[in-house]
Fold this sequence. Notes:
MJ0683-like; 8-stranded mixed β-sheet
Amino acid sequence: MKSEFFYKYPKTLLNKGTGFLSDYTHSLNPYTGCSFGCSYCYVRQMPVSIFRREEWGTWVDIKRDAANVLRKELRREKSKGKVTIFMSSSTDPYQPIEHKEKVTRSLLEVMLENPPDFLFIQTRSPLVSRDIDLLLRLEKKVRVSMTIETDREDIRKHFTPHAPPIPARLEALQRLADAGVPTQATIAPLLPSSEEFPDKLRTLVDRICIDDYFMGDGSGGRRTRNLGIDSFYHKLNAVEWYHPSAYQLVYERFTRVFPTDQVFVSQKGFAPY
Ligand code: SF4
């Protein structure tokens, strides 16, 4: 999706972890807006998108001087106690523009100077593997969670045509795992997938998180319903996948291939450590 870019100078970067992210002391969004513009993105229903009055996916604010802001905040917050960071809750920290702007990379560099107790990186972008050198230096204090909602490219294109292809995400996961960066595959929101999906992930990760709209959109599925996401399932003739019990089928498929203590559901799969 073609996005417009704007430079912003935020005063703060760390937000208090609340609600679904209450296991974290803070969330951190290096950008505002998101070029991937996923159809089901619940951020479309949040004030950051509603008050902007521009279509979600068509704009991105680039946070300038973010490293200096974070450096000060990290120092202050760490002096008060434990700091665990979820990056990111309302954007993808590896936006396509991150290739050029390197905001997220600059934040990782600051975290190496003064590491948080834990950093969780949620992304669907293979670009995260560019930063393997920095991620390795955070050792066990980081986990990269790669969104892989389905193993089917036709389904991915139907729901998120502007997001990176699934094979490229799998390759990035392989690079991260080979390098020794702690990783997980996050099937969220779970989309229609094949029976072979678990086998495709088995050699790549030893941690799976499964989540859906009903558990994970922060409103029991209301935000997603308001987006009219059911029409996407009707077009596919796959309405059985848009149901609170659909995750059980995926859970069963994965626990046939992965040990049960490696397969997490909803909030537990996003928890620190
Ligand atoms: S990548 Fe994440 S933040 Fe961006 S549009 Fe998709 S779901 Fe929303």
